[in-house]
Fold each of these.
Amino acid sequence: MERMMIHEIPGFSFGQVQDLAAGTGCTVILCPEGGVTGVDVRGGSPGTRDTDALNPVCNREVVHAVVLTGGSAFGLDAAGGVMKKLEEVGVGRDVMVTVVPNVCAAVLFDLKFGSMEIRPDGAMGYVACEAALRELPFQEGNFGAGTGCTIGKIRGAQFSMKGGIGACAFRQGDLMVGAVVACNAMGDVLENGTILAGARDDSGRGFADSEAWLVAHGQRQRDVFSGKLVGENTVIGCVVTNAAMNKAQATKLAAVAQNGIARGVRPANATFDGDCLFAMCHGTVQADPDAVGILAARAVEEAIVRGVKAAESLHGRIALRDL
């Protein structure tokens, strides 16, 4: 197994746009020829678009783009801009009078970071899709959906840190598997089982251990998420691979890839998380689905870490590199 750049996986390209002053942005994962796609939603407070069609019993054959976006539910508008651009260039399913691009999306909450008045919209999605069509290298940290990401919010904003978007990809023979993940977690990010970044302790230099803090305070405070933490936590991402899979296998791949979130973020899949992973498959490589899943989970886990390491301090949220 060897590492590779995610944009080297054939059939996929990536585009991002961000507004650093507003603290938000969106990321487009593009598959112009269409990718067999599955989704797995684990968080208790998700925000998604067109995911029902990914159910293996539905007749949606392929997806042309996945959008990861800030702006909470408002950010779903970015997908409309992606559709507009793809229609202009003839990407989508042919319905005789036009083409209809199949575009799915997932959102994260960044409205309290930067300016809540500016959210990803159709114009931003259009520009991000244009960038994806140029097939540029993927940028990590404060880019796209990672712009407004923060982590370690369990103790409040003053103890939180800057999150970000990251990517990781592996090659094993002809098989290629990668992941793009935006980490906006309530809790901590771990590397090799050790807290790397997250909720800081009173000194501001160490970590409080979000899981331990939640357990210690969960009985005394029945709804530890009430008020300022509700809806602010999410890990969203997309696995891409050149493995040949059907929709049921792609759906299972998205589910197995969630193991990467469970290993890299604690706590994960909480009540007010919107954790969601897509899996897009475009290629002819025959591979054991379990082997693909192992690589996908590892890519998700490492993409989370890479996004946090690449993030820069912004709007008062300290980044790992400045701690």
Amino acid sequence: MKPQNLPETLVWYYILGTYGIYYLGAQYVFAPLLGWFLTYYLLIQWWNQTEKTTPEKKITISPAVWVWIISILIIEIALIIGHLDFNLGTLQIAKSSFNWWLRTWTLLALFPLVGNLNIRPELIYRAACVLCLQSLILAGIGGLAISILNLDELSYISPLEALGGGSEYYYKVNIFGSVSDYENNTRLQLFAPWPPALGLVGNMYFLLVNQEPEKKWRLIGMIGSIVMIVSSLSRLSILSLPLSLGLVWFLTNFLNPWIQFTSGLVSFIGGIFAPNLLNLIETFKENFYKFRSGSSKVRAALARMAIERWWKEAPIWGHGLNDPRGPASLGYMPIGTHHTWFGLLFTHGLVGCMALAIAMSWSFIDLLIKAQTNQIAKVGLSIFLVIFFFSFAENIDSLAYILWPGLVILGIAYKENLGVCKYAESFSDHSCL
């Protein structure tokens, strides 16, 4: 597997060099640069194409990507108005637009846009397998360093932090990829800024490597990604993988008569045993929160404070930016973090929240329709669901710089030919005209 053009070369070597970039503390700088450069490259190709351009080289931007671009622009408008409402000044507007929009939110639109370039998904699958192998080796080294040498948190801050943007977590390098949380649990974070983020990318990479055609690489990739998920000790990470795989299977087979019959039977039996099932769900919920009760309490308090202040102070356009430092009782966690939707309401108000909701709804419907007949769209739907699940526990915009390979696959899935005609023909004797 070798890259065949400039976009593939950049994507391939960036993924393979992820750990090198991480140890420079440069991911938060290089990933946005990659996204913006490839976007510039795409626009040049798009502008220069003519009627003689061959179909395989012709660039057509999918409707879903346009929806994301518009939604991200609306979020920028909300950011500006939020700053004006609280008299934060022109300089702060410029800083926030650069650090909290250009390097975060825009990547959710730019990398799917990059997916419209001639980039083979198979190249990303193989590169993901290699990265998972590297992660497996480094996880082993980190485990030995922790258990034998007690080198739990040997870290440094990259000089690139001087460029600004984001907290020091984005520039902090843990040499052995491990960290101890406030409950004294040793957790791996490898090339991610914190352990739950590693669980998120572990889920994403599992979905990517699962498409690798060569069994050896697929197995290595799956083992490496599962190690990322489990060693992050993230509850949502462990739940989201089977949930996303199960949901995609159901959503792409729900018109099968046997699936409908089974679903009806399960619903009937579930109705009979509803009280027992509700008790079981409640017990599971309690155990889920007790597993890391400290984290659950902090997240609940942050959510409660974000909603309360959003509603009372800035319901339409938001506050413009997160509080730089939260209360001591919450470990100084900034209000507006640990939850994409509550964070959006706090920082960009109802306008920003609706913009993201519309983009995600469009993506879900688009991928759901295409996934009925298209394998890449099915992978894209799986990745989308994982990101959606994590939007209730993380700020996905701030993690776009490590999620970008999955975002490129989403862009490739968006541009796949709509399978509606083929799908409809399987249920009708009439062909699409």
